[in-house]
Amino acid sequence: MLAIGLSVAAYGFAPRSARETEGDPEPRFSRILTTIARSKYSIHDLSRSTGEGGDNLARFNMPLELGMAAAFRFEREGSGRQRHQWLALVPEGYAYQRFISDLAGFDPARHDSSVPSMIREVSASRTI
Taking the model in full, what pTM does it have? Predict the structure, then answer.
C-alpha cells in the first residue's frame, strides 16, 4: 500500500484513504464512497484475495471499492462530468479470474507483490 501511495505522490497527486476521516461519525462505507466520488482517479489492489485466520476468510473491501469506482465511471458518462478512471492491480498470473472474473476485458495490472513491481504498474498505468 505504501508503494502505491508513494507512486501516486511522485506524480504530483495527493493519495487519499478512508483513514484520513477516521473519527468522523459517518459510516466508513459512506466516507469511502464520498472520497471516490470526489476523486478523478482511484487505484484498487486486489492481491489480498486469500483467506486468513482460523476461519480462512478473505477480505472483500477492495473489490467492493472497485465496484464503487466502476459505478462512478459509468454514471459520469452521461452526466457531463469528467469520467472517473480506475486502475485494478491483481497478483501475477490469472488466479484473480477465479474470484473476480468480471474484470475480463479491463486488463488489470499484474504485480508480484514486490515494491518495484507495484511502482512499475502504477507508473505504467494509463490512468495516471
Answer: 0.80
- Taking each continuous run of H as one helix and of E as one strand, the counts in the chain are 4, 3
Cα gap 20→100, rounded to integer Å: 28
- Strand blocks (E) in the chain: 41-45, 85-91, 109-111
Cα separations in angstroms, 110 against 1, 46, 116: 15, 10, 12
Q: Are 117 and 124 in contact (CB under 8 A)?
A: no
Using the Cα atoms of residue 8, residue 111, residue 102 and residue 54 in order, give the sign of their dihedral.
Answer: negative
| Amino acid 57: pLDDT | 74
Based on its alpha-carbon atoms, the radius of gyration of the chain, rounded to whole angstroms, reads: 15
Give the per-residue pLDDT at 110: 87
Residues of the chain with pLDDT under 50: 128
